[in-house]
């Protein structure tokens, strides 16, 4: 009867401009889809060139190489007898579009340009692409000669159209269009489209996955239909981790769920679904039928092909499943770990080096690396040949098999405790014990000689010797002496990253990991060019509050008992002299605010778009039980002074895993000046006026 259609979607770990690797992963996904009986295969957004090409989209080379890959796909026997839907940039009449190219048996059926471009947060699609603003309009696209020679076609349809097969109708959405208030699937569904497809380049943010799932399910809950979503996965060359979650939904319920975090470069979901379930679901929604009778029709591209078999009465179809979401602690354990693995293997380095202070932030970073080692061993155990090959190359041993996370950790992870006369024995012991429990190669060293040498140079030149505050020095002297220690640790971290393996008789170098959290960056509570300066930072987009919960998760799930004492100790920089052998300096006292307050300031500043006055107005209600309006005003002013004084530090912030929507990352997410009038005179005067009125 032709009612049971079999379709496939996938999550691919594509890499910007890695045309060879991207082609191989696309072909592998098509092979898997066909082997499971699929007659249609959907891939991620811009999968041919990789989503994160950024300004490389301006280059004609990117367009050329994308068409060269398309040529290979069209010629491949793997793409025969299956409708393939791939993503790439296309130049049409000298305008660049983000497109889906849909083809079957060496014939291009339709090039569908993106209608709604993502242009907020980390996305800048309007910088490189133009949206297709001609609704339900199709033009002729003249194919490049290399494609004409394969397809025998001179022109193909280009525009906003849908495909009609022998038994159903398919319509495409591209990523942002699902999130738009006027999503195309609404009108397409009213016009009889039964299968909606969405190719995405959607990145991970803590606690975001449910929003994507809810949008997909709601797309077909009101209107009926089958919704297929593909997404990129992995680190494709920058701060983002694309988190997969490929899925298939029907009539408002999930029928297939892909993984959010994994080390598999290619993941394919296949589902067989009954079109009659869509039709009967729609039949009883009278409001839909009335709206459908008035809809403007879409141009239809006829395809002489079926997604079903003629005799499919006995073919089993997929049933709804319950989506399983990760907890935020699991997301922190898995997302940054997968991102680190991609960065490590693609940078062709031999491992990581982390300055391990014995505090929560560096310990959380160490735990993420340990989680990465767990993921690698698990992937190898499950037969992932790609991960095994990468692990062998990284450790320079062609026979090696990573089976024990602690043993693998020792091969790829070096931790270093850099003591000074201001360090306590407690933090030294905590760092050493944690290193033992995760298995890292641990180094203890003392930086006092280097600090004295640097300060000595200053004293020789100026005939002045700076002192800490507790020894009678000024605040300027006190801060400068702290910064010298912090910066020397950065210099030593890079020295040991370059030469530790050389000293051990091993090849390669190490990537330096930073461990400043998102709240400290927002407040500017870090020394510019200290240990926060590193190659990459897996926790730079994660709040202190979430990191504490993650540490507790690691205690329970990884049995890292060393973390208990780290959790109970007050956060401290240990840059000022000890008092009676004990740490007197604490982070929150230094900052003049708590980490919990910092998280609130960050969310109001970035997510709620609040300046000083608006933040004050919101907080006098939020904190009315614990603070007077005058106290709230004082706190808000202090935050904005410190934020603006230190904003310049964000311009050199180590590239960090993006996990929070209030990240102060200056690269492209949080675009602000870095030279402020830090008195905020007009804004603070508005606050004072309101305080007096209250």
From TrEMBL:
It is an enzyme of class 6 (ligase). Residues 5-275 form the CN hydrolase domain. One of its GO terms (cellular component) is cytosol. Pathway: Cofactor biosynthesis; NAD(+) biosynthesis; NAD(+) from deamido-NAD(+) (L-Gln route): step 1/1. It comes from the Eukaryota. Transmembrane segments: none annotated. Keywords: ATP-binding, Ligase, NAD, Nucleotide-binding. Its EC number is 6.3.5.1. InterPro entries: C-N_Hydrolase (IPR003010), C-N_Hydrolase_sf (IPR036526), Gln-dep_NAD_synthase (IPR014445), NAD/GMP_synthase (IPR022310), NAD_synthase (IPR003694), Rossmann-like_a/b/a_fold (IPR014729). GO terms for biological process: 'de novo' NAD+ biosynthetic process from L-tryptophan. GO terms for molecular function: ATP binding; glutaminase activity; NAD+ synthase (glutamine-hydrolyzing) activity. NCBIfam families: nadE. HAMAP family: NadE_glutamine_dep (MF_02090). Homohexamer. In the C-terminal section; belongs to the NAD synthetase family. This is Glutamine-dependent NAD(+) synthetase. It comes from Illadopsis cleaveri. The gene is Nadsyn1.
């Amino acid at each position: 009867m032709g009612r049971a259609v079999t379709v496939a979607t996938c999550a691919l770990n594509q890499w910007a401009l890695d045309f060879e690797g991207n082609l191989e992963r696309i072909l592998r996904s098509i092979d898997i889809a066909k082997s499971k009986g699929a007659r249609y295969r959907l891939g991620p957004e811009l999968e041919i060139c990789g989503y994160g090409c950024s300004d490389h989209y301006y280059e004609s080379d990117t367009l050329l190489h994308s068409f060269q890959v398309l040529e290979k796909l069209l010629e491949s026997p793997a793409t025969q007898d299956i409708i393939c839907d791939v993503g790439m940039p296309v130049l049409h009449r000298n305008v660049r579009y983000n497109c889906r190219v849909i083809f079957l048996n060496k014939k291009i059926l339709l090039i569908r340009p993106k209608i709604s471009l993502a242009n907020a947060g980390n996305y800048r699609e309007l910088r490189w692409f133009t949206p297709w603003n001609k609704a339900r309009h199709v033009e002729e696209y003249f194919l490049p000669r290399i494609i004409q020679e394969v397809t025998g076609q001179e022109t193909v349809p280009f525009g906003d159209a849908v495909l009609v097969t022998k038994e159903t109708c398919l319509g495409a959405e591209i990523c942002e269009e699902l999130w738009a208030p006027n999503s195309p699937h609404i009108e397409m569904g009213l016009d009889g489209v039964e299968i909606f497809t969405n190719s995405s380049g959607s990145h991970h943010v803590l606690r975001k996955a449910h929003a994507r799932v809810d949008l997909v399910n709601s797309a077909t809950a009101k209107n009926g239909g089958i919704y297929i979503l593909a997404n990129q996965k992995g680190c494709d060359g920058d701060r983002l981790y694309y988190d997969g979650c490929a899925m298939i939904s029907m009539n408002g319920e999930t029928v297939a769920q892909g993984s959010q975090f994994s080390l598999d470069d290619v993941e394919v979901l296949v589902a067989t679904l009954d079109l009659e379930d869509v039709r009967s679901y729609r039949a009883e929604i009278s409001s839909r039928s009335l709206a459908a009778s008035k809809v403007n029709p879409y141009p239809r591209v006829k395809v002489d092909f079926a997604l079903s078999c003629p005799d499919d009465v006995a073919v089993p179809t997929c049933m709804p499943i319950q989506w399983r979401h990760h907890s935020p602690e699991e997301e922190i354990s898995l997302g940054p770990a997968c991102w680190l693995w991609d960065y490590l293997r693609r940078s062709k380095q031999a491992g990581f080096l982390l300055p391990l202070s014995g505090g929560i932030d560096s310990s959380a970073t160490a735990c993420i690396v340990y989680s990465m080692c767990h993921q690698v061993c698990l992937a190898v155990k499950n037969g992932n040949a790609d991960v095994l090959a990468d692990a062998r190359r990284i450790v320079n041993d062609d026979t090696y098999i990573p089976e024990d996370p602690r043993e693998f950790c020792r091969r790829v992870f070096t931790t270093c405790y850099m003591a000074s006369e201001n360090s306590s024995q407690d933090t030294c012991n905590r760092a050493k014990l944690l290193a033992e429990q995760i298995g890292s190669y641990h180094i203890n060293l003392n930086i006092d000689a280097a600090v004295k040498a640097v300060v000595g140079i200053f004293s020789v030149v100026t005939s002045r010797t700076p002192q800490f505050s507790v020894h009678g020095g000024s605040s300027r002297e006190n801060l400068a002496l702290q910064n010298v220690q912090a910066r020397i640790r950065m210099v030593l971290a890079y020295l040991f990253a370059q030469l530790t393996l050389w000293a051990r008789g091993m090849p390669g170098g190490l990537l330096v990991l930073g461990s400043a959290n998102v709240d400290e960056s927002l407040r500017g509570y870090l020394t510019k060019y200290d240990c926060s300066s590193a190659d990459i930072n897996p926790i730079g987009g994660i709040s202190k509050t979430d990191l504490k919960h993650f540490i507790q998760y690691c205690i329970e799930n990884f049995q890292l008992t060393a973390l208990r004492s780290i959790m109970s100790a007050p956060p401290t920089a240990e840059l000022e002299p000890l008092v009676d052998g004990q740490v007197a300096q604490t982070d929150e006292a230094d900052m003049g605010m708590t980490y919990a307050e910092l998280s609130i300031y960050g969310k109001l500043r970035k997510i709620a778009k609040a300046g000083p006055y608006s933040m004050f107005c919101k907080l006098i209600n939020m904190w009315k039980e614990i603070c007077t309006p005058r106290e709230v005003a004082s706190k808000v002013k202090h935050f904005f002074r410190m934020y603006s004084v230190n904003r310049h530090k964000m311009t050199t912030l180590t590239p960090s895993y993006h996990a929070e929507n209030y990240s102060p990352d200056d690269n492209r997410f949080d675009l602000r000046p870095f030279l402020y009038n830090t008195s905020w005179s007009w804004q603070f005067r508005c606050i004072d006026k309101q305080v007096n009125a209250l």
